[in-house]
Amino acid sequence: MKALTILSVFVSLALVSLATQLSEAPAGFDNKSNGLVDTATHTADQAKFEETEAVADGLGPLYNAQSCRECHQNPTSGGSSQVSELRAGHRDAKGQFQNPDIPINHGAEIIKGRSLINDRAICPSGAFPNIEIQEHVPDTEKIRTFRISLNLLGDGFVEAIADQALVDLAKEQCTKSGHRICGQALYVPIVEAPSHTGIGRFGWKDQHASLLSFSGDAYLNEMGITNRLQPDEVTNLCNTASEPNDTPGPDGLSDIDHFARFIRATEVPARDLTLAQSPQAKHGEALFDKIGCATCHVPTLTTVPVGTAINGGTFTIPPALGDKTFHPYGDFLLHNIGSGDGIVQSMTEHYGKRMYAITWKSLSIPEFNNTANKIRTAPLWGLRLHSRLMHDGASLTFTDAILRHHGEAAQVTEKFEKFKAAEKEVLLEFLRSL
Q1: Number of domains observed in the structure of the chain
Q2: Strand (E) positions, 273-387?
């Protein structure tokens, strides 16, 4: 009897542990915190995320937007948007991607080491009437693409996926598909933890594993605001603000710390629950899985246990993010589905000009070069709120987007094309529920 009692206790503890691991991540578009911070803190972080930058704050000299919210807003701060950025480059004689040389100020200066072409500049101006630094794509750069802004809601849970889980997922895909579908798990530098790397999951090329690294990158390259992770201006022409532009406030946190904390505290995108429960959407999801869409658009992922140290030990997973189940309908891996843009991300652009002075564990240049024609699987959560689809925003309907899937996804697309009209419609109804 005593042994049975002890066994019952162990079973009960196991069930409690399992229940904790299966706790659902909170969902919604109501601007509420997922529990990482209190309401007042989350509201203050959101205000930082929405703050409009001015030249006096360090905006530019080259930039794309004046606030994080400008590119990440639909239907609320942190969501995706129709805003796109421009990238360009060319292949050398060996067929390897090379970043462009972009002349500014009538050719007096050449911008190197980045594929991003900024759409805005702070001069000519009253202070600098004769300096023109607007970037343009030279005729020599035959590789040109747009990339649509990404959803950030729920990315705190994405950051909390174990690296090994993504590595294992890539291997499982490859094995089960007979090597037809093989996601690439790419080790990338964690800028706030020099020498440490993690599996990339943020950005269309999976160029970041950490939300703080991602925030520092975007602050410099999209808004021109230098910070402790990205302290070097793209150009010093027309620049009058002191460096770095982003300095700690009274609470000891810089803007990039507030951005990262805001994103980590966001809820995951919510589904249309009424539509999701309809027989049509449920049938559509069954077909979605049957033809292989769910191989890459993975319905459910889980986060690491509470207390796990990630990002080179710089962030410890709190109860709000640990032991959670969430439903992104994505694998956060890189795939070649025939729509890739041919661009390899510049290391100095995304990790800083000092990155080559550091020895990064598990960093592989050949692996980076292997990403040229690959794009991160687009997570489908919140899909019904997107008016422009795929990495470049060039697909305007769900059917358009599906039919652009070739390469690794060719057989899946062929199966969709063979569906009867009614089968296609229920699958599309499922997508409308996401």
Answers
A1: 1
A2: 301-302, 309-310, 315-316, 324-326, 334-335, 375-376
